[in-house]
């Protein structure tokens, strides 16, 4: 068992109202530059819908992710190393800009600059790629809120697949339409196919927190990562010629802040925390024969951070104590593995994605109430899960490679929480049989309720900082004893200094220098020693007593000043620094 | 044959100037502009023509490079020793070189046409790119013309007796200026354009060729890297020293 830490996210789709605040703030923070106008590290898709880029989930066409070959081993769907190099001059399956959309702006200047005339001036759309006027035909969320209706929605690869199996599996006509929102960021997979596809080795997974990043200095723009990622969450900056992707806001996460998309989410539906996982078993778990076993296999490699064996193994791997403590409080581990209400997106791509989703349950209660039933009674809710407007099969295609059972279990758990909490809220006697029906107990349901419904900031985001973990390397805690008789030993080294003069060698930590200088002064009989550089006065720890030698440069005599030709000497009032002020 | 100062300058001095600029420029670029070291692909904007033109050009060019190495590095006596006659050598060089040269030329013609006619690709073309294209096309055309004209002229000028000895002599720092000066004008022009190409190479997008990702064949699929220490461990850059 080799334990590694992975920072992960859970999104509670029940709460997503599709306001796109996450997308907009992310764009402002990360992709408001030229060359990435079309790029949304975070986007919110309406489901059913084609997604962004269009139909990205159709891997028959885009060839992203991994497949299991006949020998039971994983290989990149777009082809292995030799094939990558052979097609390096023209990637055969790179999405075209129109598969995302052609970015545009408006010719706003016309509104104020147009000459006086009979026609009202109009700001024409202009392409951000060519500067030419253009017809706007698509964007990152053109089919938002089922825009385009059944024609566009029917091109959702999931809808297509379900309809191949049964003609009326998914209804898109007005009366029976359904929709929900799916916010997407990079999945920061445990088995990232984009990293595996990069010929330059510029993409990497950070060993400490598992964030997948692109080294901008090493990327050569071969574009294989764009094809490799089945979620199409690596983008090509057409101006710099480099790949860019969601960074999990690593500069924020490193100091313990949640990502921009999480911080600004008005529905407070995102959770960030740590997973501990067994890196030795990732390959094996990603290669299980049956796609529908991938969800369980993925859960299986997540380790229980409360297990003493796991904690020992984590310490052995050098995972800091505060990271282990954070993993034990991790909301994402609780939602994914303890309560089993969060599911991975498209596990069948075999990349082991680490952004999980709580599937949407609503609007089941209203529907039940409309039909004259008690919409919040457990018995009715459990029965209604299969009659939900959002078909379980649809959710299963997104989250469990088509296996409806885990989705049903999640929805039942959420329904049980509603029914159980109604009794609690109304002060009735609680019915322990409700949680028992989904394999939980009342206390667990209460905890889950607190996490999902109350969703306090510090419970949603349990993010250990990068620096506490590395505190032992910080200079304040280290005593620099670089060489025999060095500053740390209270001396100035052999021959009164470092090997090649004062500026050579490694700098003495300020704290060490300060400590010794202060100790010397406090124990010395006089105010300083002019013979040694140690006697120089550091104003930061000068206690204001007296006027130590070395505080001011040596005073020049009148004869010296006259020799320098400085004109008449300034009046000398004797003692004190004021007299020397120039 | 006596050598005049122009020949000394062109075939005795210029090659070394070229090497100094090529090596020095590449090192400089790698140190100071690693972010700019990219193919700057435009496949996102247009892929239909690129998928024909780019492989045609690049694979053609790879064969051309191999042909140059064989023609310039391996002495005629060696190929004769393994039983390849002068005539056989020239026929295969002409056929293979001709095919590869034409592929390269056709490829780059398609690519330039595409670059000029596809709006977003054209607006992503810098002046640097345009200069580079001129020199690159000139080198290819001059090379191909020399090969074909030599063949059309029946006997053809035997570069293995003039250019190749000079090329090899450059590496031992005793340039055989006289034998290069004796080569035909076609070879002179092609060599000069070629040297111009290598001189501008480090300062154009052509540098991507130096980082051809062959190491991909040997590394593990998933790359892990450690966060480099955090800010305390990062050396302060000039102007950003801690207060």
Automatic annotation (TrEMBL), chain A:
It is found in: Cell envelope. SUPFAM superfamilies: 4Fe-4S ferredoxins. GO terms for molecular function: 4 iron, 4 sulfur cluster binding; electron transfer activity; metal ion binding; nitrate reductase activity. GO terms for cellular component: cell envelope; membrane; nitrate reductase complex. It comes from Pseudonocardia ammonioxydans. NCBIfam families: narH. Its cofactor is [3Fe-4S] cluster; [4Fe-4S] cluster. This is Respiratory nitrate reductase beta subunit. Residues 7-35, 177-208, 210-239 form the 4Fe-4S ferredoxin-type domain. Residues 482-507, 519-582 are annotated as: Disordered. Residues 519-534 have a biased composition (Basic and acidic residues). Keywords: 4Fe-4S, Electron transport, Iron, Iron-sulfur, Metal-binding, Repeat, Transport. Its main location: other. GO terms for biological process: anaerobic respiration; nitrate metabolic process. Residues 485-499 have a biased composition (Gly residues).
UniProtKB/TrEMBL annotation, chain B:
GO terms for biological process: anaerobic electron transport chain; nitrate assimilation. It is a multi-pass membrane protein. One of its GO terms (molecular function) is metal ion binding. The keyword Oxidoreductase applies. Its main location: membrane. It comes from the Bacteria. GO terms for cellular component: nitrate reductase complex; plasma membrane. Heme b binds at residues 58, 68, 190, 208. It holds the Pfam family Nitrate_red_gam. Its cofactor is heme b; Mo-bis(molybdopterin guanine dinucleotide). Gene3D superfamilies: Transmembrane di-heme cytochromes, Chain C (1.20.950.20). InterPro entries: Heme-iron_electron_transfer (IPR051936), NarG-like_domain (IPR023234), NarG-like_sf (IPR036197), Nitrate_red_gam (IPR003816). Residues 8-227 form the NarG-like domain. It is found in: Cell membrane. Keywords: Cell membrane, Electron transport, Heme, Iron, Membrane, Metal-binding, Nitrate assimilation, Oxidoreductase, Transmembrane, Transmembrane helix, Transport. The chain crosses the membrane at residues 6-28, 49-74, 94-113, 133-152, 177-201. The keyword Cytoplasm does not apply. PANTHER family: NITRATE REDUCTASE PRIVATE CHAPERONE, REDOX ENZYME MATURATION PROTEIN REMP FAMILY, RESPIRATORY NITRATE REDUCTASE 1 GAMMA CHAIN. In the central section; belongs to the NarJ/NarW family. In the N-terminal section; belongs to the nitrate reductase alpha subunit family. Does not seem to have nitrate reductase activity. This is Nitrate reductase-like protein NarX. The lineage of its organism: Bacteria, Bacillati, Actinomycetota, Actinomycetes, Pseudonocardiales.
